[in-house]
Amino acid sequence: GGIAVALVDDQKVVHAAGYGEAKRNSIFRVGSISKLFNAVAVMQQVEAGR
Predict the structure, then answer these.
(1) Nearest to 1 by CA among 18, 20, 16
(2) Which pick of 4, 10, 15, 16 has the fewest CB atoms within 10 Å?
(3) Contact 31, 24 (CB under 8 A)
């Protein structure tokens, strides 16, 4: 296992690193998990009345 981390500020990568088996250029399948993040963000807006 491992983790890849990227910090982005103003559309510029300011830090990128891989830890464990992951490297900074490792490819991850994040399509399905991004749906969850979008759903949570939308529901937070609904709860806030926006």
Answers:
(1) 20
(2) 10
(3) no
CA 32 remoteness from chain centre: 12
Task: Indicate the burial class of 13 (C-beta count within 10 angstroms; 0-12, 13-18, 19 or more).
Answer: exposed
Residue with tokens 């992951």: 22
The pTM assigned to this predicted structure is 0.48
Per domain, the residue ranges of the chain are 2-47
DSSP string for residues in 33-44: HHHHHHHHHHHH
